[in-house]
């Protein structure tokens, strides 16, 4: 059972927790993180969701997920990178790019950007959520998006000057 801390629309902790999979109460939000990882060549680490994933199976995406109870956003981002792709990120190498309240999902989405030039080894991941991963230049990520192979909610990447919009 995964627990989430709940927040108000303006990110104030409510002191309440929520069980993942249950309907969120009105006017309550949970934290999610998107973690964009870039190497010194300007390529981005993109992962392919496992076929067994209930949503978007075999689609490509960045690392991300829900922040669990007791974690802050940065801690959640670091944990998701280890869980999904087996990458241990340096907290000092990351920055919060932006935060967005998404009413439809009742979440607060924090988008992180990290620099990383270390090894990639999917066998170091602690879950089986990812089938494949690779470094890609922005043009290849755009091709995936245009072909419907990138999770559609990641389209903001191309407009964000701190991320793919910088090309």
What would CATH call the architecture? Alpha-Beta Complex
Class inferred from helices and paired strands: mainly beta
Mean pLDDT across the residues is 95
Question: Topology as H/E string?
Answer: EEEEEEHEEEH
Number of strands: 9
Here the CATH topology equals Nucleoside Triphosphate Pyrophosphohydrolase
The neighbouring-strand order within the major sheet is 6-3-8-7
Span between termini: 41 Å
Level-1 CATH class name = Alpha Beta
Which oligomeric form is depicted? single chain
CATH superfamily descriptor? Nucleoside Triphosphate Pyrophosphohydrolase
Rg from alpha-carbon coordinates: 16 Å
Low-confidence stretches: none
Number of helices: 2
Overall outline:
globular
Helix content: 10-25%
Beta-strand portion reads 25-35%
Described by strand count, sense and barrel closure, the largest sheet is:
4 strands, mixed
Whole-number tally of structural domains: 1
């Amino acid at each position: 059972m995964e627990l989430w801390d709940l927040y108000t629309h303006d990110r104030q902790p409510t002191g309440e927790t929520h069980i993942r999979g249950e309907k969120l109460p009105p006017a309550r939000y949970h934290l999610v993180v998107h973690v964009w990882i870039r190497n010194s060549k300007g390529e981005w680490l993109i992962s392919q969701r496992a076929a067994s994933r209930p949503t978007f199976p075999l689609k490509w995406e960045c690392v991300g997920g829900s922040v669990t109870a007791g974690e802050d956003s940065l801690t959640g981002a670091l944990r998701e990178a280890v869980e999904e792709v087996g990458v241990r990120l340096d907290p000092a190498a990351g920055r919060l790019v932006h935060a967005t309240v998404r009413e439809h999902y009742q979440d607060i989405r924090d988008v992180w950007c990290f620099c990383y030039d270390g090894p990639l080894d999917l066998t170091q991941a602690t879950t089986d959520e990812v089938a494949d991963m690779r470094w890609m230049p922005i043009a290849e990520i755009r091709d995936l998006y245009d072909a419907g192979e990138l999770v559609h909610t990641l389209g903001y990447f191309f407009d964000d000057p701190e991320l793919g919009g910088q090309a």
